[in-house]
């Protein structure tokens, strides 16, 4: 057998890849599994978006290679979206780069800016991909703890007490996944100041802005943010287009040009029809968000009832596609989720997937219908 690359020695298969295989095996064995573990929207994309991709298929350029920078009209639609929704001005010519999903952007940014041995500040709890990509490129993860006591905001006093001389990038993710906590503008201002003081590139990963959130904000709203900050965003959650793989990175033209050097060597442009659909999505009125959020509000109220069955506590002001719940003192996250899976045939996520600070918590997804959530509740009443 050919030996695999040494970089894989410190990277494991993604948790959900492993666990969903286990879940599929249970389903194949006849178990009526309810999957409340992942944030893959079950709702349909907007009808206008579907129509746009359908009507684009006969366009003369529909099936050719596309620009690495995306259609000019897509970049313009992103710029208009950011101006209308965040009051952020971004030049569509050189401050916006469409991506095939924002997850792709995590790798592109890391390849563009990290050398072997560079350090990367990563939130704990946080999205596991920040850590795995950091390891894949030979950089060193340096975790900063977030806690419920500090409302899951960075503790800047703790950060500044560390040796930051080797840190090149800091990942932040607000609204925060998995806890659903929104950043305050004060936090974003402190992040920009922190990045400038220590010459650390701050990247906010921002795909959950419009899910159950009345106050969508962007780090690029902060004065001078483009000097030191980038923002990733995505259509996956907002418009139920997870499988389409449409994301974007915004920021300083110099930074984006470096990312483009990586991206242009790794793909051959986004499919034309998907770009046309994305343009249509970005032009939708606020009515779209209102309708979506009413559905999620109803589901969340039911998930709270389910969480009560497990004697957990949770923040009713949290945003996003999940309910992050604290389990009873002394219990372990994976013990609770395994009990729920094997005794109740319900798959939920242990907080430890997102780091050591996730111990003592579990996460429920809102990406299932109200009827299915009611069935999950009934299973605890039997």
Automatic annotation (TrEMBL):
Keywords of the record, alphabetical order, are: Aminotransferase, Transferase
What EC number(s) does this enzyme carry? 2.6.1.-
Enzyme class of the recorded protein, top EC level: transferase
- Names of the cofactor(s): pyridoxal 5'-phosphate
Q: Which Gene3D superfamilies match?
A: Aspartate Aminotransferase, domain 1 (3.90.1150.10), Type I PLP-dependent aspartate aminotransferase-like (Major domain) (3.40.640.10)
**Classification via Pfam families:** Aminotran_1_2
Q: Which GO molecular function annotation, any one, does this entry have?
A: transaminase activity
| Cited InterPro entries | Aminotransferase_I/II_large (IPR004839), LL-DAP_aminotransferase (IPR050881), NHTrfase_class1_PyrdxlP-BS (IPR004838), PyrdxlP-dep_Trfase (IPR015424), PyrdxlP-dep_Trfase_major (IPR015421), PyrdxlP-dep_Trfase_small (IPR015422)
**What superkingdom heads the lineage?**
Bacteria
Chain ranges of the Aminotransferase class I/classII large domain:
32-380
Per the record, the similarity remark reads: Belongs to the class-I pyridoxal-phosphate-dependent aminotransferase family.
Protein name according to UniProt: Aminotransferase
Q: What is the lineage of its organism?
A: Bacteria, Pseudomonadati, Bacteroidota, Flavobacteriia, Flavobacteriales
């Amino acid at each position: 057998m050919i030996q695999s690359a040494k970089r894989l020695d410190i990277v494991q298969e993604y948790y959900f890849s492993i666990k969903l295989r286990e879940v599929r095996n249970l389903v194949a064995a006849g178990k009526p599994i309810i999957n409340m573990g992942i944030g893959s929207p079950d709702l349909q994309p907007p009808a206008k978006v579907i129509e746009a991709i359908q009507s684009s298929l006969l366009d003369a350029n529909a099936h050719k290679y596309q620009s690495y920078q995306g259609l000019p009209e897509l970049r313009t639609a992103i710029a208009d979206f950011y101006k209308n929704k965040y009051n952020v001005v971004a030049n569509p010519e050189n401050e916006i780069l469409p991506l095939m999903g924002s997850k792709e952007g995590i790798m592109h940014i890391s390849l563009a800016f990290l050398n072997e041995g560079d350090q990367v500040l990563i939130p704990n709890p946080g999205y596991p991909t920040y850590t795995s990509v950091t390891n894949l490129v030979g950089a060193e993860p340096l975790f900063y703890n977030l806690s419920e006591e500090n409302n899951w905001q960075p503790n800047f006093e703790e950060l500044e007490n560390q040796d930051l001389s080797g840190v090149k990038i800091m990942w932040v993710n607000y609204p925060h996944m998995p806890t659903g906590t929104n950043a305050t503008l004060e936090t974003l201002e402190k992040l920009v100041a922190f990045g400038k003081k220590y010459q650390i590139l701050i990247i906010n990963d921002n795909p959950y802005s419009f899910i159950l959130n009345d106050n969508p904000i962007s780090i690029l709203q902060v004065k001078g943010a483009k000097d030191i900050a980038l923002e990733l965003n995505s259509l996956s959650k907002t418009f139920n287009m997870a499988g389409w793989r449409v994301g974007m990175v915004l920021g300083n033209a110099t930074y984006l040009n470096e990312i483009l050097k990586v991206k242009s060597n790794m793909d051959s442009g986004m499919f034309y029809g998907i770009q046309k659909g994305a343009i249509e999505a970005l032009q939708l009125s606020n009515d779209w968000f209102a309708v979506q959020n009413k559905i999620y509000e109803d589901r969340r109220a039911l998930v709270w009832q389910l969480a009560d069955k497990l004697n957990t506590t949770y923040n009713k002001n949290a945003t996003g596609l999940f309910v992050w719940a604290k389990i009873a003192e002394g219990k372990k996250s994976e013990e609770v989720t395994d009990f729920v899976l094997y005794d109740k045939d319900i798959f939920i996520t242990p907080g430890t997937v997102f780091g050591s600070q996730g111990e003592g918590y579990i996460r429920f997804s809102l990406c299932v219908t109200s009827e299915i959530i009611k069935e999950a509740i009934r299973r605890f009443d039997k």
